[in-house]
Description:
Largest sheet: 7 strands, mixed
Low-confidence stretches: none
Structural class: alpha+beta
Number of strands: 10
CATH architecture of the largest domain: Alpha-Beta Complex
CATH topology of the largest domain: Nucleoside Triphosphate Pyrophosphohydrolase
Strand content: 25-35%
Shape: globular
Radius of gyration: 20 Å
Order of helices and strands: EEEEEHEEHEEEHH
Mean pLDDT: 93
Amino acid sequence: MKLLPEAPKVELEVVADRTVKTDDRSFLKVRSVELVAIREDGTKSKRFPYDVLDRRAIDAAIMVAHHVENGRVHVWLRSAVRPPLTLRPRDPNPASVWEVPAGLIEPDERPAAAAARELDEELGFTVREEDMQPLGPAAYPAPGFIGELHFYFHVRIDPATRHEPAGDDSVLEENARILCVPLDDVLEACRRGEVPDSKTELACRRLAEVLR
């Protein structure tokens, strides 16, 4: 039995697509459309414009690698450069933040396979696809402007097996630092606002629940 009632059913009809073709090298593309909402009783709304972000690989895998050290669960974070934080029109922030590793899922790739691949590339832990354990349901991080789904996983690793990660040759990953820190400390840092990345907080909170 569901705990919440079904949301009102509304269908959307695309009545015009005014998307402007962009450079194929662009990471994100803006799709500009005009929509009509069809309500449950069959009535239609007036036409309204809407912009949606899209990309070739739309979904992402989020991974928490962890191990127990001196009786405490430790998790692995990685610094990431996020230009939008500095390019904010108001109150710009430092571009580099601590995050759990994450990466895009290729269109023909299984989420767990992408999680294992990205963990190797970003942290240097080689694991099997079947080692990646689901960490709660997939979630939409920003459904107001992109249909991206985040698939969450966790995996227990042996710190002694870590190798130097290859990365993806991106400028954003150059000079990235890797940090191993107790899970409780990460959660406290989240409460203090020291970890502003919401997917990292959600992943770590879910892991704490699983390991409780």
